[in-house]
Amino acid sequence: MKKLEITATLTVFDSLDELPEEVRQLMIKAVSARKNAYAPYSKFRVGAALDLENGEIVVGSNQENAVYPSGLCAERVAIYQAGALYPAIKIKTMAISASSDAFNVLTPTPPCGACRQSIFEYEENQKTPIEIYFMGETGKVVKADAIKDLLPLTFGKATLNNI
Length: 163
Ligand code: THU
Hints:
This protein is of the alpha+beta class. It has one domain: Cytidine Deaminase, domain 2 (3-Layer(aba) Sandwich), CATH 3.40.140.10. The protein contains four helices and six strands, in the order βαββαβαββα. Bound molecules: tetrahydrodeoxyuridine. Tetrahydrodeoxyuridine binds near residues 42 and 74.
């Protein structure tokens, strides 16, 4: 028997203004994407923005449904849109911001487990890391250098193919 230790290093920025300019602009797009969230049930608005290698920016916001599980998170709306519009183009960076109509979201809001799984699939396919920056409404911004820092034990096509 032995124990394995899993570590991840995240970078914490004190505010939006500490980000590299290109990332700051991307985060502003994520913040703006929150406006188009359709969140009548949770009142929790999430915006995501992707910076692609061809210079395109693809955004997404959470889209809820009266049949609750039919809704989709902002991150998956954005990443599936990137896959649909630019299937061969690598995703460099994802920026995420969350706010609530009911309270001030000060805690950086990471992607949920299902979104991490979806991001992993794209990262595995493109063979280069996707940097992920996430924040609440205001306050600190956290950066993960790659999805493995948020999802260390992965189940992907390599698992299915016994690679
Ligand atoms: N949500 C996202 O858009 N991204 C996440 O990573 C977590 C949660 C959305 C889903 C739902 O519309 C609302 O936030 C509350 O869970």
